[in-house]
Amino acid sequence: MSYIEKNLLEVNKKIGEAALSAGRKADEIKLIAVTKTYGADLINEAIDFGVTDIGENRVQEIMEKYESVKQVRWHLIGHLQKNKVKYIIDKVELIHSVDSVELALEIDKKAKKIDKIQKILLEVNVSGEESKFGIEPERCLDICREISRLENVKILGLMTVAPFTDDETLLGNVFSGLKKLAAEIENENIENVSMDELSMGMTNDFPLAIEKGATMVRVGTGIFGKRDYTK
Ligand SMILES: *Cc1c(COP(=O)(O)O)cnc(C)c1O
Predict the structure, then answer these.
(1) Closest ligand 1 atom, residue 36 Cα
(2) 179 lines ligand 1 (CB under 6 A)
């Protein structure tokens, strides 16, 4: 058995266990295999072993790999600059990292051109770390309302990147915070806005994220091993 197959079995097992212990069904949680820095060969291997959704955090990498990777759903999970929307608009299933009205406007414009309704999540900086992208939680509802008016963009939920820490209390608070914010927005019944998806949890913390309500977990090293950024 290859290490990718073995790791995927392990990750899926943990997803199942975490779902079970939270009283949820495993199929409520989608695994996004995060493929940044890995080449098409490894990605294709993961697809052969059942991966249906992959996440990349750079536009450039999507462009480089797109043609050599087998049929799969692509997710953009990293910061997106407005001037790069045009390169990926025809390629991505879901953009997890929308953090401004201006970016949503640009996505709307480019999606309109190809007659697509682009699904997006709003990235929220729940932890309030200076270094992080994302909308401040207090501004999220207003931004949702503004983006909801765009015809070629559809908000499906929220995303967050938790701090890099082993502090389970802190992590738990971040994940619960995102869930709570989604519930508050849901309560407003904004037309064209759904809060069905919560993208949270990475290799080190996805079981906890599932316990707190994640519907999408983004796992990279847990599947592919340590990343080499020198290449
Ligand atoms: C790299 C990355 C991940 C995956 O991180 P791992 O720790 O390798 O699982 C998840 N989300 C985002 C936004 C990332 O950039």
Answers:
(1) 1
(2) no
pLDDT recorded at residue 227: 85
Return d(Cα 119, Cα 123) in angstroms, integer: 13
Nearest to 204 by CA among 228, 179, 170: 170
The domain spans of the chain are 3-224
- Side chain identity at residue 97, one-letter code: S
- Whole-angstrom distance, CA of residue 88 vs CA of residue 97: 13
The yes/no answer on whether domain 3-224 falls in CATH 3.20.20.10 is yes
**pLDDT tens, position by position, 118-145:** 999 999 999 998 888 999 999 999 999 9
Q: Which atom of ligand 1 is nearest to the CA of 78?
A: 13
State how far the Cα of 99 lies from the Cα of 205, in Å rounded to an integer.
23
Determine the distance separating the centroid of ligand 1 and the alpha carbon of 202, expressed in angstroms.
6
Mean pLDDT, consecutive 10-residue stretches, the chain (231 aa), reads 96 98 96 97 98 98 98 98 98 98 98 98 94 94 98 98 95 98 98 98 98 98 89 63
CA of residue 221 to ligand 1 center, whole Å:
8
What is the structure's pLDDT at 228?
82
The per-residue pLDDT for 21 is: 96
Are 139 and 185 in contact, with CB atoms under 8 Å apart? Answer: no
**Nearest residue (CA) to ligand 1, atom 12:** 77
What per-residue confidence (pLDDT) applies to 231? 63
* Atom of ligand 1 lying closest to residue 227 CA: 8
Mutate to test the pocket of ligand 1, among 8, 57, 228 (most ligand atoms within 8 A of CB): 57
